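anyone else get weird line breaks when pasting these?? whatever heres mine. first is seq + tokens for prot A
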Amino acid sequence: MAEQYQSEYYEVSFVEEHVLLVCINRPKKINAFIEPMWLDLRRIFTAVSRDPLVRSVVLAGNGRGFTAGLDIAASALSKSDPNAGADAAGRALGLREHILEFQDCITSIETCGKPVIAAMHGIAYGLGVDLSSACDIRYASTSTRFSIKEVDVGLAADIGTLQRFPRLVGNDSVVRELAFTAREFGADEARDLGFLGKVVQGGREEVVAAALETAKLIAAKSPFAVHSTKHLLLHARDHSVPEGLTYTATWNAFGLQSNDLKAAMGAFVTKSAPKFGNLGAGGKSKL
């Protein structure tokens, strides 16, 4: 495995051609996050965006669960502030920069140029909802339990859940209930709300296998078309329909000249499976 994917806190491997499996690997703490973990996450997904050999990614957790969220005992939240005597405005600026960097690390999943599938089992608390909300597709095993946990530690969720989760779920009242109460909700409820694409019978092995099957289907498609589709979906989410249509017309003025289009059309005419070359060093789908 290339050096850019090596990490103490992640197991990264190609399980199929062009399909990368990224496993959060701090199982003794149910994959609870400490700062080096979210920094490594950004480094890995930045590398994924630039790696022409990767066409789709599955993000899973090792051990008993996807992630228990933030490791409160190891975080700054549980420690005395070394800058307690400093100017409040200066402290606030420092904290703001810390939060923005943390947000950017999670956003690296969303802006990765390759589709990312979350394969969840066990628990996905707090940061687990942040992480999975930034993914393109979400699967969970039948016993998976979720919670927007931040109010239980005296904070509003600040790493992406309050921005992404409501857009994924079609019931504003339930979103607010879950965010205000930190109530646990299961995989079936998450699917019914529209948060999950699939609930898989079984545990970790089964949900990861299901996610990998979907990842393989994606990896067989045109890399340019898949990258373009993710990019345009993100643009459409944050812009009006007329703006999205105009932007797509400009984007596809390039797409209509791609080698992938020629390969797909040729395969259609000859009734054969298309073979696509690697896209090259792709950038982030940041808009």
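and prot B, same format (seq, then tokens)
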Amino acid sequence: MFGVLFPNRSFPMDLSSFTQIDTFHWVLDMSTFVGEAYHQIGEMCIFLLNNFTLPPDKALAVYVQSPGSPFVFCGAVTLQRPSAVLSLIWPEPASDSATPSAKIGVSVEDLAVLPSLDVAAEKKIERLALKVGENLFNFMQSFCGVDGSKLVVPMDILDRWFKKFQEKAKRDPEYLKGFAL
């Protein structure tokens, strides 16, 4: 049906490594795999096996759960995207956790109800946009004047910022890497 691999941490594992909850849900108990060091597992490759046919409107969704926390969606694979390397963003564990270990859940779900096939990529884009916006704000703030309760900036401020941004990127290729996460 499917297999998983933790890059630099495991050999490929098939469905037999998971506990089947019901027809469409499986759970991997991380304590049997890495003990309490589950948070060190930052990526997981999931892939459909050749003999498994997933309906075109379904996806194999991946979730993570820290001890005592709810499951959090990480991403999914489909027939059109039969494999993926997903970032595992572990939620904070509950301090009074009755759940002794972290888990990875896999389930067959309707593709239409899933938020995204790769949650971590969307979060990286969001962080990138916030960093660029912060850079623009800081640049504009250095030229601001105050008119009553309003900040006033020169009309060509965006052009000046963008030109400076481009010049820095040309001079120093590492500059743009500081915006990527």
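btw re prot B: The chain has a mean pLDDT of 83. DSSP finds four helices and eleven strands in the chain.
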